[in-house]
Amino acid sequence: MVQDLTVGDSRKTLIRYTMPMFISVVFQQLYNIADSMIAGKFAGEDALAAVGASYPITMIFMAVAMGSNIGCSVVLSQLFGAKAYEKLKTAITTSLIAGLLLSVLLTVIGLFTTPAMMRMIRTPENIFADGALYLRIYIGGFVFLFLYNVATGMFNSLGDSKTPLYFLIGSSVGNIILDIIFVAVFHWGVAGVAWATFLAQGVACILALITFRRRVGEIKTEGRVSLFSPELLKKISLIAVPSILQQSFVSVGNIFIQSLVNSYGSGVIAGYSAAVKLNTFIITAFATFGNGVSGFTAQNLGAGKPERIKDGFIAGAKMAVCAAVPFFAAYFFFGRSMMLLFVEDSGGTAMAVGTMFLRIVAPFYFVVSIKLVADGVLRGAGAMGYFMVATFTDLILRVALAFIFSAWWGTTGIWMSWPVGWSVATVMSIVFYGRVMKRYGKRA
User: Fold this and answer.
1) I need a surface site. Which of 48, 57, 433, 441 has the fewest CB within 10 A?
2) For 183-196, what is the mean pLDDT?
3) How far is CA 33 from CA 39, 74, 89, 172, 290, in A?
């Protein structure tokens, strides 16, 4: 259902818009966690390590998809808020054409460079073959992943955050069922985990595109609608490219950290792999609140209503902080129980490493949640310079301090770099948010 975010009570409107997106992320992260859980429980610790070792590389591909999602969503939200429906439809087809070409190109490059990428992060020999196999199958399905993310951004730009939720629930449940069949029943190991993701994402992508085509057809237009517009592609790229760079640089930073982690052996890799999946669960949830605020900001700026943005930010921040509470409690106080979802040996290296990671980072979820919501306002307002500065500061600090601290405190030092980077970047994002609000307050 198409939803206009420029009318009604700002906070209630944002909550209705954002909550389906949050639930979508919960299901998306559940099947990501299920991949690692099933691999660790049914295929062993080395299989868990193999899936985890390739994770930072898969996140680079995901970064391109998510950055494109953001670029499409912001521009389409502005056009929808301004009721420029002819341009809106042209922007949609332009995004899909450009996205298809880009995803095919990256798929070809990724398939040819898989071994080189696995060596670059110093993957241990005992998990190299499985890690490379998982990565090849994942990259083979990247076109589906990319176009699904673009379609999700398009649904969200029209204020429809419920339809992507339904597809994601179906995809998540299907993925978990296929994981169990391929790994626990057929004993395909790491390949089974990868093929389950491939098939689930493929079906979700095709159904989402078909449904979106019907949804757009319900929007009536009178003027001529072009199939492709270089001008609109440029406008989308001005948002998408910085978002892709930001998320890619974060992924590249994670590769450096993964390379450092890999030097400690497969036990540490397995523990880090499990803990970082749990961490990614809540960080992605916070980012979803930011994405909701981004769409809300973009629609209201397109409609000439900047005064609604502050209420949207406050509502988004409250939701994010509330979401942080149960995750902080679960990870900080019950970290060992959470790690038992992935590993059998309660006294092994993987358990000790994962539990320590969660206890160090969990208290700072209340900090980073505010940053990601403030970043949503910056993206929605097109203030990509501010957005990138705050994000790159976080990245550079985390990577540099991980290497410095690890020399003093081993793996514990690596985990300590997260809170420092998050705290400094959060202060910067809040300052930049204040500058953006001051600028639009003067215009209003």
Assistant:
1) 441
2) 87
3) 10, 29, 36, 11, 22
Inter-axis angle of helices 10-38 and 309-333, nearest 10: 30
Taking the C-alpha atoms of residue 60 and residue 75, their distance in angstroms, rounded to an integer, is 23
Torsion of Cα atoms, 16 then 282 then 157 then 430, to 10°: 90
Cβ contact 365:328 at 8 Å: yes
The 3-class SS string of 224-258 reads CCCCCCHHHHHHHHHHHHHHHHHHHHHHHHHHHHH
**Helix count (H) and strand count (E) of the chain?**
16, 0
Evaluate whether 278 touches 137 at the Cβ level (below 8 Å): no
- Residues written for the chain: 444
Instruction: Provide the whole-model pTM.
Output: 0.71
Residue range 131-145, pLDDT digits in tens: 899 899 999 999 998
HSE-CB for 371 with a 13 A CA cutoff: 26
**Is the pLDDT at 203 greater than 80, yes or no?**
yes
What are the tens digits of pLDDT across the range 370-429?
999 999 999 888 888 898 898 888 889 999 999 999 999 989 999 999 999 999 999 999
What does the block give as tokens for 217?
A: 């057809």
